[in-house]
Amino acid sequence: MSACPEKDILGLLNGKSVTINASRCVGHGACFHACPVEAISLVMGTEKRGVELPHISPEFETNIPMLFIAGELGGMGLIKNAVEQGKQAVDNISKKLNRKHSAQFDLIIIGAGPAGISASLNAKANKLKFITFEQDSLGGTVFSFPRTKIVMTSPMNLPLYGKTKFTETTKSDLLNLWKHLISKYNIIINENEKVIDIKKDSSVFIVTTTKENYSAASVLLAIGRRGSPRKLNVPGEQKEKVFYRLLDPELISQKEILVVGGGDSAIEAALMLSDYNNIVTISYRSDKFLRLKEKNFLLLQQAIIKKKINVIYNSVVKEIYDDFVLIQVNEGKEIKIKNDLVYKLIGGELPNQFLKKIGIKITKRFGEVVPGH
Asked: Residue 152: what pLDDT?
């Protein structure tokens, strides 16, 4: 119980341990490692609702030899776990690599989020000739987190750096550490260069980006599961007032804003926007919030009591207009709310089409134990 950084998920009832708030578990595994009798397992998906994930070996290798996957795409989205997987994957690549290849690089790393950065640092430590691509900005998904988001629940071990001292940190602190290490060790990361295809010719991979072709003896995919933002597919969604991530909330004030979603990212965005004299409404499809971190849940309740945030439960967006949004609530009733900006923070879609195109096998997991746990 005390090992869980989220608190109040496990409890004691009549002297026996029970789950008292299972919906808020984020799966970082601290309880698993602390349990002396190995009574806890982490699972992917549920018995009824599976989760589609690429098939990878315990060494993080896909069905395509020398093409590896690490981090969120492989099912482990927490930063500490993604960092560890990025490191381990490169260790395995380094062991298997035939250094007498004819390619430009020993390794191409795709994605500069936690797994990709860790992999890049470890590739440097292993003296590999490599290059890293990031379709957006350094940090990947972490870069798009709200500015003050706490992104760590326990220390992580970074290659070439060692164990981080913080257990809780902000996005900016984490990005600053990564930038410092990348500069210190002269690591090349090509930002704003998206990989659009990967083909294998004999033992060499040809990686095609939006800029040119590259060749490598091995490839590590660390692109995250979100892929492209998940959309609602409603009329008006293409308007300029619609966004899929929140950047610089301090520049937005005196607006009527709709935040769509009920996860931590959506709630944190709504909380920050409410601090700058905005009228903030959350549209959430369920009747209560599930899987929120306790701190976010408490802050949201306080904001609702203070009337800083209004929540419309059991609701879906039907259409977006220039100055209002049409929302459907219980029993098919539709309501209009005045609106200047819409933030849709409902996650992203696993880039299955891209994975299938390059030949990676994808399997659906139903309540399976997470590898390594």
From this structure: 55
Which residue type sits at 251? L
On whether the CB atoms of residues 319 and 234 are closer than 8 A, the answer is yes
Host H or E run for residue 16: strand 16-19
State the pTM of this model.
0.64
* Inter-residue contact 292 to 283 (CB < 8 Å): no
Give ∠ CA 37-41-46 in degrees, rounded to 5.
155
What domains appear along the chain, each with residue ranges and CATH number? 1-40 (no CATH), 49-227+350-369 (3.50.50.60), 242-347 (3.50.50.60)
Residue 286: C-alpha distances to residues 293, 303, 333 (Å)? 17, 19, 16
Nearest Cα to Cα of residue 243 among 255, 233, 251, 231:
231
Tokens 């706490």 -> residue: 150
The SS3 call for residue 133 is strand
Q: Is 270 exposed, middle or buried (0-12, 13-18, 19+ CB in 10 A)?
A: buried
Strands (E), 202-350: 204-209, 213-216, 219-221, 228-229, 242-243, 256-260, 279-283, 309-312, 316-320, 324-328, 334-338, 341-344, 348-349
Work out whether strand 341-344 and strand 256-260 pair parallel, antiparallel, or are unpaired.
parallel
- State the pLDDT confidence band at 130, using cuts at 50, 70 and 90: very high
Please provide residue 331's backbone torsions phi and psi, each rounded to the nearest 5 degrees.
Answer: 60, 30
